[in-house]
Design brief:
The protein contains 2 helices and no strands. It is mostly helical and about 120 residues long.
Amino acid sequence: MNDVVPETETSQEPVEAGETVEAGEAVEPEPGYDPAAPAPLNVPRVPTGNAEVDAQLARLGDADHLATDGHMEVYEDVHRGLRDALTALDARPGPPAPPPPYRTPSHQTPSHQSRS
């Protein structure tokens, strides 16, 4: 018994749009076009004026050159950085609180008793 499978001839001619491919034929994609390749989104990033926030927004550009499965790491890193920047705003001391208005302590208030 022979286990050899006879080879089928395949056409090396490109398949035109609208034509069907017969079973057993392989269609190779055009060279230079890779639909799965990372492509920049070119989303504009407007500076905020806060150096920490602007650095995090610039970090989002790193995701443009990564495959989709690498985006999560960048997004989580940026989220962490933005959260830290907001937390830092809460922790910064503000201007000193104004002193309370002057009040005379109750034990030193003049009494309105009449002298006799």
